[in-house]
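Run Crp/Fnr family transcriptional regulator through structure prediction, thanks.
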Amino acid sequence: MQSSQAIMDLQNQTLFADLPEETIQRIAQSAILRHYSAGNALFDQEESGEALYLIVSGEIGIEHYGALGQERVINQMYAPCIVGEVAVLTHVPRTATARCLTAVRCYVIYRDIFKELSRKYPQILWNLASILAERLTQTNRDLTMRTFANAETWIAYTLHSMFEERHRKNVPKHNELPVTHADLARRSGNSRETITRTLKKLEEVGVVKTHPRMIKILNAEELEALANDLGDF
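Sure, done. The structure for Crp/Fnr family transcriptional regulator is below.
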């Protein structure tokens, strides 16, 4: 499809950074606009990956299910962003489920179209490499924290990472994290008891305020300091 709205949407995507408008116009002709309701999945773990998704509005939760069916929330992503690109590049099944946490508007580009666009406009591949390198850097940072941090520091790190990503993407009320104790337990791999105990400590020192289905960050600088402290707090 092609429209002025589609062109503006795609211009905001890092994947198409530094491309001239006339090129974006041609890309818009191949992108398929889709709308999803909160709770719907863009794709499921283990299914074949034939397309990538350019999220232009809304929030996505990335979920992974273990061999015994246990769920782990890997990440939350905010528009503008890209999801589903790994399966398109590698031809392997989806490694996780991408579920809409809010209403989502996105553009879908199928593998054969993406290959054609990449051949015509090599800048797209450079942009994708930059996106993947940034994610790898974040993954390495997460692995370091998982290895050396105690449970409380890891929870502080998780909260601060969510806050930083929401702030970077200009999410409204970015200091109000829409997560529950159970969400944090699934994401951090800690028990709900540990989550509750840590959040109580953070409340006592004025760093956060917990609400039903939401945690409000009151002091981001102190939270960052706690997230980087490998000792107890």
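The CA atoms of residues 176 and 216 lie 4 Å apart.
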